[in-house]
Design brief:
By secondary structure, the chain is α+β, with helices and mostly antiparallel strands. The protein has helices spanning 51-73, 115-125, 141-167; strands at 15-17, 22-25, 31-37, 80-84, 94-101, 112-114.
């Protein structure tokens, strides 16, 4: 059974529908790119998912998120995919985020379920396990590590670009810098 999904009016221009689910740019992005993949079927949240009906659903959601991240932002690796619990809109939603991260609150260990962990739980237990005994303010260390790695790579790429620009006489705006005319002063005497 397929149901419609309520999308805020300001997001209607940013939505792309497939036969499966819409992929929406988040209203409150937490990274360089932040997509939300929402299935058309009604599933209140991740903890309601069961092995057989939902494993394929989650795989398809991830595939759609990866495709859109590559198409819209040219990001093919080094991204995060996961679910928050409880769901923001009382509807299952996969977050696909490309670092650098601007706000880590989504990734609190108590409420963030990485995609791989959710799939592993579904396979092993038939449902996604509830997290117990986790400090509510702790941030997922895997998210922090990936963010750090991406920031370091971007800084290195920026440094390499600046070196190339300096070597080839191009300023950061991409405009060739003309050589200064040499002025020779001679004293006649």
């Amino acid at each position: 059974m397929i149901h419609s999904v309520q999308v805020p009016r300001e997001d209607l221009g940013k939505i792309r529908f497939s036969h499966f689910s819409p992929q929406v740019e988040s209203r409150f992005p937490v990274g360089r790119a932040h997509l939300m993949v929402i299935p058309k079927i009604t599933t209140a949240d991740l903890r309601k998912c069961k092995r057989h009906p939902h494993q394929t659903l989650l795989k398809t959601m991830l595939q759609l998120g990866k495709e859109q991240l590559a198409e819209r932002y040219n990001v093919k690796s080094k991204f995060l995919a996961g679910f928050s619990y409880p769901s923001e809109y009382n509807q299952l939603c996969l977050h696909v985020v490309a670092p650098p991260i601007t706000n880590f609150l989504l990734f609190r260990k108590a409420t963030w379920y990485p995609y791989k962990q959710a799939q592993a739980d579904l396979f092993q237990y038939g449902y996604v396990q509830k997290k117990e005994g986790i400090q509510a303010t702790d941030i997922d260390p895997g998210v922090v590590a990936l963010d750090k790695k991406v920031r370091e790579l971007r800084a290195k790429e920026k440094e390499q670009c600046e070196e190339w620009e300096a070597k080839h006489g191009v300023n950061p705006g991409g405009i060739a810098v003309p050589e200064k005319p040499k002025i020779v002063v001679s004293m006649a005497g």
